[in-house]
Amino acid sequence: MNLKYRKTIIAGNWKMHLNADEAKKFILRLKPKAVQARWCDVVLCVPFLQIPAAVKAAKGTRIAIGAQNCHYEPKGAYTGEISCEMLAEAGVKYVIIGHSERRRDNNETDTTVNKKVLAALQAGLKPIICVGESLEMRDNDVTLDVVRMQVKTALRGVMHDQIRRVTIAYEPIWAIGTGYTATAEQAGEVCEAIREVVRQLYGARLARAVSILYGGSMNTANAAELLAQPDVDGGLIGGASLKTESFEDIIEAANQ
Q1: Is the dihedral of CA 43, 48, 49, 51 positive or negative?
Q2: In the structure, what pLDDT confidence band is assigned to residue 39 with cuts at 50, 70 and 90?
Q3: Is 225 noted as a catalytic residue in this protein?
Q4: Separation CA 117–CA 246 (nearest Å)
Q5: Which of 101, 108, 133, 171 is an active site residue?
């Protein structure tokens, strides 16, 4: 982390977990810890149907509510989709874009990720762009090439005055939901490469301001070591974000 230049963000990705009542109770329990989190922003990316309850429960706190996906069109005949404008109207501040599960299960590509990023920014949302490699890619030593291309494509058309609102999450696919985690050095190397891409596109000053998260099974045991890397500015947390105690411990590690 580098608090001199950019904010630390601890974001929970609840995926398809927790109903509205459970979401409300979780946020009420989390409020005291969020108040104490002077050095980091807390984000909860909840299922679509839980957004109204979560926004209401988080009102007046430092907890921001995010969505887990969006469509790139503002409206139209897109059955089952939700636009960025609808999310913003509901009180959403952040939106996850390009998570590997969406890429794998819903055929999302680097091109559709880019279109969603531009739509999110247009609607006033803060996109959390997910990038990462498969185990085969890592074994073939093309991790940095793959991640650099994903970042460049995702940011195509993003203006200099918009880049500060963008967060990038490095999520090695082989570490999501598997219990495996990249070492702190591996995470740091890729996050450094991501910042270098942003630096090439937007200059050093703006690159220093972009928060880059690690998202491959960060938990209470490894959070402090991962966050000690200079280019790891927080975490996109999956399973550990579903239990108040473990999520609070990660926030505490980021608040040092």
Answers
A1: positive
A2: confident
A3: no
A4: 30
A5: 171
Q: What are the chain's domains? A: 8-254 (3.20.20.70)
Nearest-5° angle of CA 212, CA 217, CA 223?
65
Catalytic site includes residue 160? no
Q: Report d(CA 119, CA 124) in Å as an integer.
A: 9
- The answer to whether the Cα torsion of 235, 239, 242, 245 is positive or negative is negative
CB atoms within 10 A of CB 180: 12
Q: Model confidence at 21, in pLDDT bands (50, 70, 90)?
A: very high
Indicate whether 1 pLDDT > 80.
no
Q: Which of 99, 101, 108, 133 is catalytic?
A: 99
Strand partners, 13: 45
d(CA 50, CA 30): 16
